[in-house]
Amino acid sequence: MGNxxxxxxxxxxxxxxxxxxxxxxxxxxxxxxxxxxxAGMSLLEIGLLSLFLYAGSAQFITAGMMMAGAPxxxxxxxxxxxxxxxxxxxxxxAPKFKGYSPLKNFLIxxxxxxxxxxxxxxxxxxxxxxxxxxxxxxxVTAQANWIVANLLGALLGGWxxxxxxxxxxxxxxxxxxxxxxxxxxxxxxxxxxLLVIGCAAGGFALAFLWLPGHLAVMAxxxxxxxxxxxxxx
Amino acid sequence: xxxxxxxxxxxxxxxxxxxIPRTLPLVLISRMRLPxxxxxxxxxxxxxxxxxxxxxxxxxxxxxxxxxxxxDWLAFFPTLAVALLTRSLLLTVLxxxxxxxxxxxxx
Lengths: 233, 107
Hints:
The complex is a heterodimer.
Chain A: H1 11-38, H2 43-52, H3 56-67, H4 72-83, H5 86-93, H6 102-110, H7 114-123, H8 132-156, H9 171-187, H10 190-207, H11 213-230
Chain B: H1 5-29, H2 36-59, H3 71-74, H4 76-86, H5 89-106
């Protein structure tokens, strides 16, 4: 990764930086496509969902709730809560994209996911600014991969049994581990980062006693970021 | 190929409630000067979010706690070691998949 200036943050570089995330979202997207097809969605519907909702856990939940015959409003409400964590990620990226037009920032944010956020945060550390072209390269590659994965899952899902056997489900957790490690090594503020890590992990474990996973993630992240901020003079 | 009416409403509704938190801060905050404490908070958000996501995926299966002998929990340690040693996201992902498959096969 290393320090790069805005000139090297080209569209093409964004595509290249997306490559390590492809396997993780390919497997998750494939699984999502299987579930969506099982829930009775047509290929066209699965394509539209991947295009406009474009969110891993939210698509699983949508398919599951549709299958269970849940009312529209409760599906939409659940998706809102599951995806609320993007608020935090969008806010964290905002200072890196100062000076771009509201439309550009809207487009940058519209394709924000855990993975593209992680890659962006790992590369744009310190005072480094983001480049719109680079972010679009990253975003478009990630979403194209996601749509293809969903459609493949819907088409081929019935033929592939037990993907857990190949460890492919671990591509996503491994990606999060790698992104966290890269952020720490870029920051070089090991004491404070260890505190943030401790608060986030401990906070999650505590919050998960009472809250569903996606809310526990958000609560833990807010707590840990506050801990990091107050220990910084 | 068809789109059901119910699906259409779910699609529109869930797309809107997802788009707003994704875009609103980027559109608004990037045009403001934020107070110092907020900037310090935002600086720590990436590591905080990634760590919380790691905790969710290695400590739980999404709904319940994993057992201490769960392969996906045990695979966390060698995967982290590879991440720290190689500093490569791609190698970390490939190694993590390998460890999870191996541990799943052994356990």
